[in-house]
Amino acid sequence: MDGDDVPRRFVTQDEWGGWVMRRLDDGWCAALDRDTMRCTIYARRPDNCRVFEMGDSDCQRERLLYYTPANALTPDARKTSQ
Ligand code: SF4
């Protein structure tokens, strides 16, 4: 995330000291609007998010893993499904 302009309140350091997007208890990115499922910092999103093409196979996979409203997967359930 070096060189990115992400608001500091949305980032945290991982166990290796790298800067990553902070996640809330539901496992989703802290910058995600839970009601609209839109990025609240779209213009300032990190480079990783810019290269992640919306609707491609990786995106569809993440949506299947996380966005199942009737049966939302917890972060622990996600780990075991990989
Ligand atoms: S694009 Fe998604 S993962 Fe990236 S900062 Fe926005 S809400 Fe977070």
Helix and strand topology:
Layout lengths: L10 E3 L5 E3 L10 E2 L4 E2 L7 H5 L5 H10 L8 H7 L1
Antiparallel strand pairs: 1-2, 3-4
Bound molecules: iron/sulfur cluster.
Label this structure with key terms.
two-stranded antiparallel sheet, binds iron/sulfur cluster, 82 residues
Question: Radius of gyration over alpha carbons?
Answer: 13 Å
First-last Cα distance: 25 Å
Count of DSSP-assigned helices:
3
Heteromolecules bound: iron/sulfur cluster
List the secondary-structure elements in sequence, H or E: EEEEHHH
Give an account of the 3D structure.
- The protein has 82 residues and is α+β, with helices and mostly antiparallel strands.
- It has one domain.
- 27% of the residues lie in helices and 12% in strands.
- It has helices spanning 47-51, 57-66, 75-81, and strands at 11-13, 19-21, 32-33, 38-39.
- Residues 21, 29, 31-32, 39, 41, 45, 49 line the site of iron/sulfur cluster (SF4).
- The site of iron/sulfur cluster has 8 residues, from loops.
What is the compact description of this entry?
The chain is of the alpha+beta class and 82 residues long.
